[in-house]
Amino acid sequence: MEKEKLSFGEVIKTIRKQRKLTQKMLSQNICSQSVLSRIENDGEIPNVLVMAQLCQRMGVTIDQVMQMHSSEVQHVHELLEQMAYYFFHKDYEKLQTLLERPQLLNHLYLDTDLQLYYYYLGSCRFFKDQDHETALEDLKQGLSYTFRLDKANVSSTEIQLISCIGRVYEELKQEDAAKENLEYGLQLFYELPPERMSNMAAKIFYNYSHFLYNQQVYPRALEIAKEGITVARKQKSYYYLDELFLLTGLIYEKMGKDVEAKKYFEASGDVHYIRSI
Question: 158-168 pLDDT, tens per residue?
Fold first, then answer.
């Protein structure tokens, strides 16, 4: 049976929502929001220039958009959702099993899907395999698909990748590169519109605080860790919350504040228990 193709407007709408872009954000300085709405609802066919600019802002090519089929899109979406679930719960064994499916890369048309693939793969290399050199290569590969230094509308995934690259550099004892990437990731997070923030943003704060802790910059490490806890609580997310509580306790311990340290150690245990049930 021939695969059902999505219309150009349907593909644009699907990708825009995956990128967590509003119609206003995507259309800004390209076309009016009302024109974009008509394009997405197949009420208007965009000219080549508008089409190219919309694709460029979303990090895809016109050819990629034209190749997409509804059944293929649904299959890839479901697979990426499953990967995201395992990644969120740090189940790297199951995540790696999905990543190793035969011909998986042949089904990933979009640069952002390939980016997620290498982000997840690099994370498995780092946490499961303890292969830091290969993890760094994978994470850099993932970032290379969409990121440019002059890019507007940096995505939450790109920020996560930059922060994780810094974390790997730390493990590789390349402190200058680690600091540069960790600080840059945090800076980009502050510039991100609230509606585009990931519920995994706390990891950015954990990575930087972890680095500062190992550098014995305890006051700044404490400030960053506590800010990460606040971000996680605002997002009602447990992702990296127990690690942030534990790290905060360790920082207080190094500062000789055992009473405060004990409170955070207990909080870390409570969150870990909640996540395990």
Answer: 999 999 999 99
